[in-house]
Design goal:
Blueprint: H1 14-19, H2 39-58, H3 71-75, H4 79-97, H5 102-108, E1 120-124, H6 151-162, E2 169-173, H7 183-190, E3 196-201, H8 214-220, E4 224-228, H9 234-241, H10 245-258, E5 270-274, H11 285-300, E6 306-309, H12 316-324, H13 328-337, E7 352-355, E8 361-362, H14 365-369, E9 375-378, E10 381-384, H15 393-398, H16 428-435
Parallel strand pairs: 1-2, 1-7, 2-3, 3-4, 4-5, 5-6
Antiparallel strand pairs: 7-8, 9-10
Length: about 425
């Protein structure tokens, strides 16, 4: 039986967690108007936030701000050193709790983690985005203009897909993937292959100038839209994603509904994504899905097919947020304390291949953002493996490479488990009852 000697922490009930989604106020969307870009507002918000962080880090009266290692200092280190520093922080947090590294922790529970045949090819085609959400684990923003997938890399990914019959899903993410020049090329070329195509959409992109036909394009190619909507209440969306995002998201959902998405018998699937707005685990998906459907239908006449919950990973912006508030150790404790052994088999790193904008390959999207690439060995060198180094999914499986793990992996095994497809396991209590 799984036991942890940790200080008790009361987990929220499902009802309490659902209530955390927002305030009990009713909002209405503003009248429709000509599309304007969100980018200028996002850049202004980023500058304001940076100034606030800088001021807080210098204040001797801020007890929650660690004395060293502020965000500006860490970002100056560069991506690789920043990722290493994040990993050290999480490791120190677990050391304080007496918890072993994730791989060793699994062995202590009699569990293992090995790669299975790849069924999903997930492409992060660029970090450019019209938003800069504070929970974003890829740190996308309008400033990320250089990290964009080229046509050569996109075509190699398509070739890999054609050669890999085990892959049934092409998952396109970013950034705002629709703002990358390769997005429509990838969708158009992949459609005849008969795979399911997912667009991970932030919704506000549908309101960007030049994207007026986006909903129609997605519908014409039967693309499944997985759309981030952290709450049905305006105040919580504003807190996590920016002041104008809520109304633009509602407008985006209406564009998708008008194109047939979420409508019965249309065959066009619209899935919403919930991320907690704080350092707590998501509530049960069915509970929150019912509430979302009720609220969005009553307020705006919006319909959708289903909702998935994704746990916030303690990396990048969210990790920085926790660290600055002195909550990183407490959150890591919550993740470990909520470990669900039933989630291990469904972890996406077993069946997904994540490809970065530059062609490097990873076990998952979270490893990608921590620069934990699969390694190419031989000829006296070791470097990150790229999509150009692997012919197809079967060749990848034959390499028998171990899945790279670190402390952030506890985020995917907490509660009902978490993946890019939502929860992956029954709650621990239900799992115990089922196996008794």
């Amino acid at each position: 039986m799984f036991l942890l000697r940790l200080a008790p922490r009361r987990l929220q009930s499902q009802a309490e967690a659902a209530q955390r989604c927002g305030l009990a106020t009713t909002t209405t969307a503003p009248p429709s108007q000509k599309a304007t870009s969100l980018i200028a507002e996002t850049l202004a918000d980023m500058e304001e936030e940076a100034a606030a962080k800088a001021a807080a880090s210098k204040s001797p009266f801020n007890p929650t701000m660690p004395p060293t290692g502020g965000a500006a200092e860490l970002k100056a280190m560069g991506r690789t050193r920043l990722s290493l520093e994040e990993r050290k922080r999480r490791r120190r947090a677990l050391d304080g709790l007496g918890i072993a590294p994730f791989g060793q922790f699994l062995k202590q529970q009699g569990l293992g983690l090995e790669r299975a045949p790849t069924d999903t090819l997930q492409l992060n085609i660029g970090l450019y985005c019209n938003q800069a959400c504070n929970h974003c684990h890829v740190e996308s923003s309008p400033k990320r203009t250089q990290e964009m997938m080229t046509r050569e890399t996109a075509d190699r990914c398509l070739d890999f897909l054609r050669r890999s019959p085990s892959i049934r899903t092409l998952d396109l993410t970013g950034g705002a993937p629709e703002l990358n020049a390769q997005f429509r090329h990838l969708v158009t070329e992949a459609t005849p292959l008969g795979v399911s195509i997912i667009d991970r959409c932030n919704l506000t992109v549908l309101e960007e100038p030049g994207q007026e036909d986006l909903a129609t394009f997605l519908a014409n190619h039967q693309v499944k839209v997985v759309a981030s909507m952290p709450c049905y209440e305006e105040e919580n969306v504003k807190r996590q994603r920016g002041s104008s995002v809520y109304h633009r998201s509602i407008a985006g959902l209406k564009h998708l509904n008008a194109a047939g998405y979420g409508q019965e018998s249309s065959g066009l699937c619209l899935t919403l994504v919930y991320n907690p707005v704080g350092a707590f685990l998501p509530p049960a998906q069915p509970l929150l899905q019912a509430k979302y459907k009720e609220e969005l239908k009553a307020r705006f006449g919006i319909v959708f097919n289903d909702l998935i919950c994704i746990t916030n990973m303690p990396i990048k912006r969210f990790a920085d947020h926790l660290y600055r508030r002195g909550e990183l150790e407490k959150y890591m404790q919550l993740l470990v304390q909520s470990f669900n052994p039933g989630a291990v088999e469904g972890l996406m790193c077993r069946t997904h291949l994540s490809v970065g904008w530059d062609g490097k390959v990873y076990d998952c999207d979270f490893n990608q953002q921590l620069d934990m690439a699969m390694r190419k060995q031989g000829e006296g060198i070791e470097r990150g493996l790229t999509i150009h180094d692997v012919q197809d999914a079967n060749a990848l499986l034959e390499m028998k490479r171990p899945i790279l793990m670190d402390t952030h992996c506890f985020g995917c095994t907490a509660g009902e488990g978490s993946s890019c497809g939502g929860t992956i396991a029954a709650p621990v209590a239900a799992a115990v009852a089922a196996n008794s």
